[in-house]
Amino acid sequence: MRNKLISFVLSAMLVLTFIPQISFALEGETESPEGENVTIEEQATEPIEETIDELVDEVVKESVEEPVTEVSEEAPEETDESGVITGFVPLATTEYYYEGNPEEEELTLHLPEVLSVYLNGSDTPRDIAVSWEAVEDFDDTDFYFYSMRPVWGEGFVLSDSLSAAVDVPWITVYRQEPENDSIEPVVTEEEVEPIYTEEEGCIDPEAGVADDTADVSFKALALETTGEFVDGITEDSYADTATNTATIYRYLTGTMKLNTAAACGVMININAESAMSPINLQNTYNSKFGLSDAAYTSAVDKGKGSYKTSGGTSKNFKTDSGGYGLCQWTSSGRKTNLLNRAISSNRSIGNINMQLEHLNSELQNYPSVLTTLQRVPNNAAGAYIAAAQFCLAFEIPANTVSTAASRGRSCLSNYWKTYSGASSSATGTSFVSLCGYSYPTAIKVGKGMDVTGYAVSNYNITSLTGKITNSSGKVLYTKTLKPNTTAYKLSKLDDAMKFGSLSAGTYTYTISATDSLGKTVTATHRFTAASGNTPGKALGFATNGSNVSTSSATTASVKKTYSGKFPKLPKRGYFKKGDKGKQVKRLQKFLNWYGNYGLKVNGKLGSKGIKAIKKFQKSVGFKADGVFGKKSLAKAKKVKR
User: Fold this and answer.
1) Contacts of 159 (CB under 8 A, 6+ apart)
2) How deeply is 485 buried, as exposed, middle or buried, from its count of CB atoms within 10 A (0-12, 13-18, 19+)?
3) I need a surface site. Which of 93, 225, 481, 612 has the fewest CB within 10 A?
């Protein structure tokens, strides 16, 4: 009873105290009967305080006999906006697409407002407020997707054990072209989940469609059961996205003999450039020419390069500056070569196999890229590095370094995850590598050599050093740089590597890169300088943890054959789960060499071994059934890594 009375009194006190304040705020001053201007607050303050004191005294006196029950209030939850982020709860949805032409700020408004994180090593997740920003230059880059990274308050810092490029949950937003009205939504009205609830344009949870009051609509990106994108970005494609993706993968791993990691790295770049459509014309040129992808392709084919826009203006494929095809070939020289290949082979300019042949041919003129693709290990590091290097040195889009990191990360969470079956998580793992770098095998006295290639990592490269030492170990020339970025051109070392100033003798050229995780990769190469030498150089590739060492007489082969013994098949003609013995050990050793699958060489073929067999089969274009028999063994004996 006492508590109820006190509650009543306190309520009355609040009402009586607050009413004059509201009146004052609304009316300000009021005129008294005598004409004097006084505030209501001045009139009401004293009487109200006295009345409240009297009421409280009466209530206390009347209820003094009643038992008192103390009610303890819970302490308010701590809201300190600070801490070390040591982990993330995966986002439920990481892929979206949009329509229209929103500004970056408008687009990011509709992405999640919080991230669930683990702070200071705790196992209990906590939500922190975030905003989102585009990794690429949003206004100046004509992409089919944008990678959005979260931005949190200044009080939160990312643990040194986590990589911003790999471990932080990013969101990929795909563009749905407005003119493609015939494309079915990737998520139907029945399936769609509400993604944002802004008043000016929200998705109705019941209807699953965007309110017309908004200029941009968002839907979650659907995935097929195979895990491949169904992004519906291009119109009138000659084949659906899944079919194109499978065709590209088979060509890269079959005809070009790339491993799965390298193929995935190329594929994420093709998806970024053209959404896997060989007839894709750069977005802005669809509007500029007034032609759809299919109409443009047909016009170019009929005129053997010459065509007219919808407005009747004569154009030529070679010089119209519109990016086209799987790799968005743009310059007149590259488009001329593509057109010539199509005409000479009597195929459409939009034929996917013709374009893949052209890509293969072009890569012969990009030896540093091709060397990297041929040498990357068949693991997550290889997939990331292949994607980044292909972007850095072949595609070369705007904001190249940040875009390369974005594509490397997307490769891990999409194609690599799909085709390898491996988790995309790489917490605390460094991918630091030296990609397609040049090194001398012989120097002619007085003649120099250009330093080329890239240092690449999923963490910032904190130190890059190049040096030349003589046969006594004395350092003749050296330079150390502090890039603090995920990719860096080795040509920045060029001015200090004075190969042309060396006298006759034997020397060693060393490159070393260290990232913020403290991982270092070093490549060391011996070479000779002599007046009668024919200058020679080679391209190298070195991964994290590798100290590559070659001399002028021996240069590492691009493709290595397996030096171990191959297993003999059981009488039944194939290995199956549960098999044991010496031959199983041989199989395990081969699989570890081929794909770095991490199998224990214990002579017991278990579930992990069967998964490794499937990965091997998928990477060489076989049906991944996990049955290692005559065909798989024959392929293993021919394969090179």
Assistant:
1) 84, 85, 86
2) middle
3) 225
Residue 147: closest CA among 383, 406, 396: 406
Confidence of residue 421 (pLDDT cuts 50, 70, 90): confident
Burial group, residue 53, by CB count within 10 angstroms (0-12, 13-18, 19+): exposed
In DSSP terms, which residues pair with 508 in a beta bridge? 469, 526
Which distant-in-sequence residues (6+ apart) come within 8 Å of 434 by Cβ? Answer: 453, 454, 455, 456, 490, 511, 513, 521, 523, 540, 541, 542
DSSP letters spanning 379-443: SHHHHHHHHHHHIIIII--SSHHHHHHHHHHHHIIIIIHHHH------TT----EEEEEEEEEEE
Q: Identity (one letter) of the amino acid at 350? A: G
Query: What token pair was written down for 542?
Result: 């070195």
Q: Confidence class of residue 176 from pLDDT cuts 50, 70 and 90?
A: low
Q: In this structure, what token pair is assigned to residue 611?
A: 């998964």
> pLDDT tens digits, residue range 283-296?
889 999 999 999 99
Is residue 514's pLDDT more than 60? Answer: yes
Beta strands in 471-584 (DSSP E): 475-481, 485-489, 505-515, 520-530, 536-542, 547-550
Q: CA 349 to CA 327: how far, in whole Å?
A: 13
Per-residue burial over 89-104, b if 16 or more Cβ lie within 10 Å, else e, is eeeeebbbbbbeebee
